[in-house]
Amino acid sequence: MVVAEVIIELKEGVADPEGMNTKKTLKLLGWDVEKVETGKIFEIDLGDDISKEKAREEVEEMCKKLLANPVIQTYDIEIID
Question: Tell me, what CATH number does 45's domain have?
Answer without folding.
Answer: 3.30.1280.10
